Amino acid sequence: VSQSRYHLRVKENLERYYANEAQLWLDHQISHLLTEKHRISLPEAFLKRWLTTTKQETYTAENIDERFTEEGDVLRRQLVIEKIAEAGDINVTEEELRGAAYEYVADLYRQYGLMNAGNLIVDYAEKQLKDQDFKRRMADRVVQRKAFEAVRGMVTLKPVPVSVEEFFRHVNEHKHHHIVTGK
Predict the structure, then answer these.
(1) Distance set, CA 165 to CA 43, 62, 162, 168, 173 (Å)
(2) DSSP SS3 for 176
């Protein structure tokens, strides 16, 4: 590969990487916007009792208050997303469900260095789609993506140029769990 083609490929990969990171950051900001604008009251005492009873390996009397703060935000966000999906008549097609599963599995394979796993991705995704919990998680991913697209259509985005260092400093200062696993 000639040096100029190599530089072009590196440039394209970096552009794709930063575009993806910027999209993740925008989704992160939308997620915060949804919970800040829609403060839904939850039956906290009941939910804390339920969590410590049904998920004793994760939630204890000692950690429930701290852990419930995040769980409450996740639940509130999910309720808002479901309301957006209902209002926008957002549905998940079989094609979108499979696409989300393939994308999720491809991301997993890439983490292990398998860039072009082709049939392995399809075979594993199809096997996973037989698991109802996996299928529900993939449907949730599609609904979330569509709901966030709907929100992006309602807000004004202002591009702000930043240095690489500023970008990662900002992202790392605000890093925490995403709504749906896998990203």
Answers:
(1) 42, 38, 8, 5, 12
(2) coil
Count the neighbouring beta carbons within 10 Å of the beta carbon of residue 147.
22
Q: What are phi and psi of 8, to 5 degrees?
A: -65, -45
Type of residue numbered 12: E
pTM: 0.70
Q: What is the identity of the amino acid at 103?
A: E
- Convert 51-78 to b/e letters by CB count within 10 Å (16 or more is b): bbeeeeeebeeeebeebbeebbbbebbb
Instruction: Measure the CA–CA gap between 72 and 42, rounded to whole angstroms.
Output: 8
Give the number of residues written for the chain.
183
Could you tell me if 123 and 157 are in contact, meaning their C-beta atoms sit under 8 angstroms apart?
no
- The two three-digit tokens of residue 67, written as one number: 């852990």
Within 10 Å of residue 43's Cβ, how many Cβ atoms? 9
Q: Three-state SS for 35?
A: helix
Residue-wise pLDDT for 135-174, tens only, equals: 999 999 999 999 999 888 888 888 888 888 888 887 777 6
Give the whole-angstrom CA distance, residue 101 versus residue 92.
12
